[in-house]
Design brief:
heterotrimer, A mainly alpha (105), B mainly alpha (638), C mainly alpha (174), B: 26 helices, 2 strands, 3% strand, globular, C: mainly alpha, Four Helix Bundle (Hemerythrin (Met), subunit A), 7 helices, 75% helix
Chain lengths: 105, 638, 174
């Protein structure tokens, strides 16, 4: 199905996705958008795993299963993160990352 | 050889009582814990008497000496094959004698306390402490090695501390208990160093090995000489320092008069009959070592004892607090015992002093406990310690009066009462071995008779004092112990001590030496006579005599300013010239260095704390750019 | 040829929506753009012939996580709200760092020749995947599977406890 598409193409896509995730993480103030940026980052990593698995080591399924596990971890992380965000919202009436700095110093 | 393993119960029963009444005392009515404690002590007393009868008579083969035997021994701490700390039960003549003393007096005091302490706050606590004390004292007496003795020695000190401070709401009781504890602890430091030196030189803690005439302590006398005395002499002098602290010998006596702040039964048990003679017991226990290896140390014992007895007797003549008079009298009598041990030789008739010291310990326990318990009954009736508040009590308290009189006669050395026999043996021993000390003791015998009858007449005769309410005789729980102890005071002298308790275990012939006995009885009668003239009726003589002696009277009244000397040495000299520079060094150099470190760290923390902004995006930015920089450096530039 | 067209289509979607996700000012739209990115990624997995993985991506990511995110957005902000962006300085600096990082990574990828192998492909149908998940031999994944299930349980309990309203806290607020 992949035909003549070289591996590098997948890597380029995932790189761009990764860095847009980083950019979002560094510039967005809203905690939920920051969480979404992290999902982007995780997703780009998944693409890499799958692509490497398919192109370089098609004789086993390590990358495939690693991706499965990362998805599960991402789901757990999202659930806990959202619970924390809701708790923060309850205490601060805001989910702006700059306002949540009680713990500094 | 008969099995004496059951003697293990003698210390263990009081321990169980202590734990039981101490932990569950608040659950019952107070009197229940009192009765439990008294019943337990009754069992202990029975066991002690049984042991004594079996050891001295039933199991004893005629003509053989008394040997010491270990009824029980177990290793408590195993440091190495050579160094172990054992716990056990040692049975020999003096330990069996002490069993009788401790159990009898303790049992009497338990019964007495049922009446005396009735209605007091902390009744159950009092009885649990009494049990703790009995346990520790039994452990001390039965110790198989000097280290076990030291452990129980400290336990005894703790229970003494607890009982002196029994009325812990009273500031004077609190400071008295602290004083007793600190002074005896200071003395115990010497004891501990002595133990370590002794065991270092002999490789053993065990008493049987130490005192055996062929053992390492006696045969290998050598060792480092210091100031002209051998190492073992120094060790024994240090051990005696511990004994002197516990037995209130000059100059470590200052805690004993203040210890009278405790309840009177405690004074009778701990500060008259049992704990304070622990020092005597210690010297007696190590006597062969003292006598054969370090006669110089024994001289120290004799002179400290002799001086203390004179010193205390003089002070006792001037005090007005009846318990303090008795306290100084105790100190004086213990001085007698120390002196007796000090002038004694080893073996046969030479060991007369050893026998006499132990004999006097035994009889003294009886009559001094009686005196204290009688004083307790009087205080119970009059609600005062001061003899100025007393007088003419013989009409109101007949039983107390008679028993007190018996005790006074006994301590004064009137013939056919127990005190006469034991004191006479001491004087005889001193007469044969050390003339100056004999003269001192001879004077002290007169002084003793004088101050005891001064006390007696001031309380029971003298002026007719007006009381707030008519004094009444003490209840039966208090008078019965008085009667039993009076019986003991009269007849304890007829025990054949020279056959039972001797320095080498072999019996010897002892007889009354009239050249000593008659003058000593006469001087005792003289003392009584002077006291009768001065105090039988209210007269002007004591006042005039006091002014006549002037400065000397004032000195004695203020206990020769010993407390002030101690305060001067500690407060003025040690605090000012040692403690203060040390404190300065600690505060400015040691603390200063630590503060400097802390301040430097604090300053640098202030400098860098801005980096911890708490803004995650800043962190993320630094992380990402740092990673990029590392990638550039390590992949493309390296 | 068809596959190339499909790939470029998916790649374009991924790129555009990724950037939109992190730049739009409306949070709800960002979530929807994220959904598109995830769905396109699932398409990539299909192309790579990992059908089960693609299905999981769709159900867990698109179906689960995005819905969760949308719920929390609705709980915490107004739909009409415009999200605040970082200050200009921070934005420019981040953009610089990101561009530098991306450039660096792309150069590295393009300069490296990945040695392609033509080995026997293992089947990746649901049956063999299920067998691999519970077997513990050379190509079995029983241990990670168990670990992940415990992690999920812990995360579930943790999320409930963290998000639960505390009674005492309630009293304090009143």
């Amino acid at each position: 199905m992949t035909g003549t598409i070289p591996l590098q193409y997948f890597l380029i896509i995932s790189t761009l996705m990764f860095f847009s995730g980083i950019f979002g993480f560094l510039t967005r103030k809203n905690l939920i958008t920051m969480l979404m940026s992290i999902e982007l980052i995780l997703n780009s990593v998944n693409i890499n795993f799958v692509a490497f698995n398919r192109y370089l080591y098609p004789d086993n399924l390590h990358g495939h299963f690693f991706t499965l596990i990362v998805i599960a971890v991402a789901a757990a992380e999202a659930a806990v993160a959202i619970a924390i965000i809701i708790n923060i919202y309850r205490n601060f009436r805001s989910i702006e990352v700059d306002k949540v700095d009680e713990m500094k110093f | 050889m008969t099995d004496y393993t059951y003697t293990l119960l003698i210390p263990l029963i009081p321990l169980a009582l202590f734990l039981f009444t101490g932990l569950t005392g608040h659950k019952f009515k107070p009197v229940v814990s009192g009765l439990i404690g008294t019943t337990g002590l009754f069992v202990v007393t029975i066991l002690s008497y049984m042991t004594a009868i079996r050891y001295f008579w039933t199991d004893h083969v005629e003509g053989m000496g008394y040997t010491s035997l270990k009824a029980f021994e177990t290793t408590w701490i195993h440091f190495s094959d050579k160094l172990t700390v054992n716990l056990g039960v040692l049975i020999d003549p003096i330990s069996v004698m002490m069993l009788i003393v401790v159990s009898t007096v303790s049992f009497m005091v338990h019964i007495y306390s049922l009446g005396y302490m009735k209605g007091e706050v902390g009744f159950a606590r009092f009885f649990s402490f009494l049990s703790l004390f009995t346990f520790s004292m039994m452990g001390l007496v039965l110790a198989t090695n000097i280290f076990q003795m030291y452990i129980f020695w400290e336990l005894v000190g703790v229970s003494s501390f607890l009982l002196i401070g029994f009325y812990y709401t009273k500031p004077s009781a609190v400071s008295a208990s602290k004083k007793a504890f600190i002074v005896t602890r200071f003395a115990d430091l010497g004891f501990l160093i002595g133990i370590l030196m002794l065991s270092f030189m002999t490789d053993t803690f065990d008493f049987q090995t130490l005192v055996s005439p062929t053992g390492p302590a006696i045969t290998q006398v050598g060792g480092a000489a210091f100031l002209g005395l051998s190492g073992i002499t120094w060790a024994l002098i240090l051990v005696f320092m511990g004994g002197a602290g516990k037995s209130a010998m000059f100059p470590l006596h200052i805690w004993l008069p203040d210890a009278m702040e405790g309840p009177t039964p405690v004074s009778a048990l701990i500060h008259a009959a049992t704990m304070v003679v622990a020092g005597v017991y210690l010297v007696a226990r190590l006597f062969p070592v003292y006598s054969l290896a370090a006669p110089d140390a024994l001289h120290v014992v004799a002179w400290v004892g002799g001086f203390s007895s004179l010193f205390a007797a003089i002070i006792a003549c001037t005090q007005t607090d009846i318990k303090r008079v008795l306290a100084y009298s105790t100190m004086s009598q213990i001085g007698y015992m120390m002196l007796a041990l000090g002038v004694s030789g080893y073996g046969g008739h030479d060991g007369l002093g050893f026998m006499a010291g132990n004999f006097h310990l035994f009889t003294h326990a009886m009559f001094k406990a009686l005196l204290f318990l009688g004083a307790g009954a009087i205080i119970h009736a009059v609600h005062s310690n001061d003899m100025k508040d007393m007088g003419g009590l013989r009409k109101y308290m007949p039983i107390t009066h008679i028993t007190f009189l018996i005790a006074c006669l006994t301590i004064a050395g009137i013939p056919f009462l127990s005190g006469f026999f034991s004191k006479d043996e001491i004087l005889t021993a001193a007469f044969h071995h050390n003339m100056p000390l004999f003269i001192i003791e001879f004077a002290v015998a007169g002084l003793t008779a004088f101050y005891m009858f001064r006390l007696y007449f001031s309380i029971f005769w003298g002026k007719e004092t007006h009381y707030h309410h008519t004094p009444h005789e003490a209840p039966a729980t208090m008078t019965i112990p008085l009667l039993i102890l009076a019986f003991g005071s009269i007849f304890a002298g007829y025990l054949p001590f020279h056959e039972l308790v001797t320095s080498d275990g072999m019996p010897f012939e002892a007889h009354i030496e009239y050249a000593v006995a008659i003058p000593s009885v006469l001087i005792g009668l003289l003392g009584i006579a002077i006291a009768t003239i001065m105090y039988r009726k209210q007269t002007e003589i004591p006042q005039r005599l006091a002014t006549g002696f002037g400065y000397f009277y004032n000195w004695a009244y203020h206990k020769f300013y010993m407390d002030e000397v101690y305060l001067f040495v500690t407060k003025k000299i040690i605090f000012n010239y040692i403690s203060r520079p040390v404190a300065w060094f600690d505060r400015h150099i040691v603390d200063g260095f630590m503060n400097l470190i802390a301040r430097v760290i604090e300053r640098s923390a202030y400098l860098i704390k801005g980096f911890q902004s708490g803004r995650i995006q800043q962190y993320g930015f630094v992380f990402v750019s740092g990673t990029i920089a590392l990638v550039i450096i390590f992949i493309y530039l390296w | 040829m068809n596959s190339e067209i499909l790939f470029f289509l998916l790649a374009g979607m991924i790129l555009v929506f990724s950037i939109l996700t992190v730049t739009t000012r409306r949070i709800l739209r960002a979530a929807v753009y994220l959904l598109f990115v995830l769905v396109s990624t699932a398409g990539l997995y299909f192309m790579l012939n990992y059908n089960f993985l693609a299905a999981v991506q769709l159900t867990v990511y698109a179906g689960g996580i995005v819905v969760l995110i949308i719920f929390s957005i609705l709980l915490t902000s107004h739909i009409s709200e415009r999200a605040k962006m970082a200050g200009k300085f921070q934005g420019v600096m981040s953009a610089l760092a990101v561009v530098a990082g991306a450039t660096l990574t792309l150069i590295t990828i393009l300069n490296y020749s990945f040695p392609a192998k033509s080995l026997n492909e293992v089947p990746s149908d649901v049956k063999s995947i299920g067998r691999a998940l519970v077997s513990y031999n050379e190509n079995g994944y029983a241990l990670p599977f168990e670990v992940v299930s415990i992690l999920l349980l812990a995360a579930m309990i943790g999320a409930i406890i963290v998000a639960r309203k505390e009674k005492t806290a309630d009293k304090n607020i009143k």
